[in-house]
Amino acid sequence: MTIATERESPVLMTYSKTRGLGALLTAFMKQRRMGLNDFIQRLATSNSYAWLQILVLTLPSHPQPSPSQQINLGPSSNPTAKPSDFHFLKVIGKGSFGKVLLARHRNDDQFYAVKVLQKKAILKKKEEKHIMSERNVLLKNIKHPFLVGLHYSFQTAEKLYFVLDYINGGELFYHLQRERCFLEPRARFYTAEIASALGYLHSLNIVYRDLKPENILLDSQGHIILTDFGLCKENIEPNGTTSTFCGTPEYLAPEVLHKQPYDRTVDWWCLGAVLYEMLYGLPPFYSRNTAEMYDNILNKPLQLKPNISNAAKHILEGLLQKDRTQRLGHTDDFEEIKNHVFFSPINWDDLTAKKLTPPFNPNVTGPNDLRHFDPEFTDEPVPSSVGCSPDSSLISASIKEAAEAFLGFSYAPSMDSYL
């Protein structure tokens, strides 16, 4: 089963208790950080019949590949990059498979976010395909302003390294929890930039599948940067579908919960959920009780409070349409989203050219300004092993096996990519 377990980006645990929402929001944050994998583990050990019903709903319909199956990842390149090329400065995020570190290249003094993943952990959870999918999608992001860029990747016998754009304006989730909700113009701006990024991925026949505020970053000027592509599904044609159960509980579309085939409109459902959360402070069908939340997503009518414009209500009703064939974006994908009246104030050409002034400036002073990262991570010492390559004479058979599973991972762009 495909699951959402990565939580590479930092989250500051401070929610407003305005209007009595404090306890609910705190529970919401703990639950979403738990991730779908841990959630399923809870279900498996629960005696509750309601939990068991949901467990049956989430069981995979196809067998897991055996550990001995070899994944054909293509020919391996011969990169010259190595961990010692970098001075690793701070831990800025953590996940199931490793850490994200702020690093400065020793030759050009440029700052990067380097995602360092443990091969053993990936192989243990049979997540090789998702890691390679993330790498493949990153290779295609060079030309879009609202997608994080991959500079190159490399590996040692034990670890994989993604050398990524360093984005230090903070997660959208971080800013949303501090302010509880956004005014409509600010929410519209972010939603437009996110939609532009999703539309670009769809044009490449990629479905994102895991849109949520934790995966949406702000750059130093306040523009959106979409990150974390581990759950992307490639090669989905305009009328194509897939059926893998994956995502994050609060944002799962009804067709995913029903274990029905779904298409790229699943991303437009998630866009609606994120817009709703920006306007109201919580996802549209949220409940502390996950079984109840799933039932809400499947059966409860969308409820909209009267403190937003008619255009905002209309787009939320279109995006959060339970029947995907009636959902906004089903007929003409991103073009339908662009042409909705909610976005009438947006000049899309200026938006993608970054000519529109963001509604909020993170006011970072430079690469060393870490104010928007959780001290839980930045206070952690940088592991000494992260910048070292193992002695080949000491590499065990299991480590060599892990190395062979990721043939073709390393990548360095051609000079044409920068022209």
UniProtKB/TrEMBL annotation:
Matching Gene3D superfamilies: Phosphorylase Kinase, domain 1, Transferase(Phosphotransferase) domain 1
Function of the protein: Protein kinase that may play an important role in cellular stress response. May be involved in the regulation of processes such as cell survival, neuronal excitability and renal sodium excretion.
Residues annotated for ATP binding in this entry: K124
Keyword terms, alphabetized: ATP-binding, Kinase, Nucleotide-binding, Phosphoprotein, Serine/threonine-protein kinase, Transferase
Domain AGC-kinase C-terminal: 344-419
UniProt name for this protein: Serine/threonine-protein kinase Sgk1
Domain Protein kinase per the UniProt entry, residue ranges: 86-343
InterPro entries: AGC-kinase_C, Kinase-like_dom_sf, Pkinase_C, Prot_kinase_dom, Protein_kinase_ATP_BS, Ser/Thr_kinase_AS
Lineage of source species: Eukaryota, Metazoa, Chordata, Craniata, Vertebrata
Pfam families the UniProt entry points to: Pkinase, Pkinase_C
GO molecular function: ATP binding; protein serine/threonine kinase activity
EC id: 2.7.11.1
Reaction equation(s) it catalyzes: L-threonyl-[protein] + ATP = O-phospho-L-threonyl-[protein] + ADP + H(+); L-seryl-[protein] + ATP = O-phospho-L-seryl-[protein] + ADP + H(+)
Residues making up the signal peptide according to the UniProt record: none
Entry's family note: Belongs to the protein kinase superfamily. AGC Ser/Thr protein kinase family.
